[in-house]
């Protein structure tokens, strides 16, 4: 067997192993109700004294002087939509929508999916939470087929 075939076989085994590890546990189906968990929030910003890093569900505050971790705060866990029953379908993609972080005027603003969080700094106390409106798509100007 040449080296190319060995490498291809190894790559396929790794892909299979990774896919199997992410699969649903035996006997179960992922519940899905149109709700996507916040998994991919990420960003970095700073003020005059601290560096703020958002990674996944956490905010980490570092001192700019020595880059030592000062504080860690968990972002609020999003609640599933009300009035919807779970229905089986594939798991959502590993991204939670748009995300970002910005520090200014004594506050840290974190965008995680459809949610905007305002934290006071440097104590990282959650002050306000806002849900962004769902985007409205433009209506088609073309007539429907058959009319």
List the defining traits of the structure above.
1 helix, 35% strand, 147 residues, four-stranded antiparallel sheet, mainly beta
Commentary on this structure:
The strands form three sheets. Strands 2-3-4-5 form a four-stranded antiparallel beta sheet, with no helix packed on it. It has a four-stranded antiparallel beta sheet with strand order 7-8-9-10, with no helix packed on it. The protein has a two-stranded antiparallel ribbon with strand order 1-6. The chain is 14% helix and 35% strand. The chain has one helix and ten strands. Strand 4 and strand 5 (69-74) form a beta hairpin. The longest helix has 20 residues, at 3-22. The chain is mostly beta strands and 147 residues long.
Short characterization:
The chain is mostly beta strands and 147 residues long. It is built from one helix and ten strands.
* Oligomerization category of the chains in this entry: single chain
Chain-averaged pLDDT: 73
Q: Tell me the β content.
A: 35-45%
**Span between termini:** 63 Å
**Adjacency order of strands in the biggest sheet:** 2-3-4-5
Q: How would you classify the helix and strand content by structural class?
A: mainly beta
Round the Cα radius of gyration to an integer and report it. Answer: 22 Å
- Mass-distribution shape: extended
Separate helix tally: 1
Order of helices and strands: HEEEEEEEEEE
């Amino acid at each position: 067997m040449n080296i190319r075939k060995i490498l291809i076989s190894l790559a396929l085994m790794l892909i299979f192993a990774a896919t199997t590890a992410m699969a649903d546990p035996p006997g179960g189906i992922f519940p899905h109700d149109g709700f996507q968990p916040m998994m991919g929030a990420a960003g970095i910003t700073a003020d005059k004294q601290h560096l703020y890093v958002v990674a996944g569900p956490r905010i980490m505050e570092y001192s700019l002087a020595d880059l030592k971790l000062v504080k860690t705060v968990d972002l609020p866990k999003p609640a599933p939509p009300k009035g919807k029953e779970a229905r089986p379908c594939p798991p959502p993609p590993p991204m939670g929508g748009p995300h970002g972080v910005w520090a200014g005027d004594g506050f840290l603003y974190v965008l995680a999916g459809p949610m905007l969080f305002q934290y006071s700094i440097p104590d990282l106390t959650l002050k306000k939470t806002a849900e962004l409106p769902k985007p409205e798509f433009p209506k088609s100007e073309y007539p429907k087929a058959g009319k």
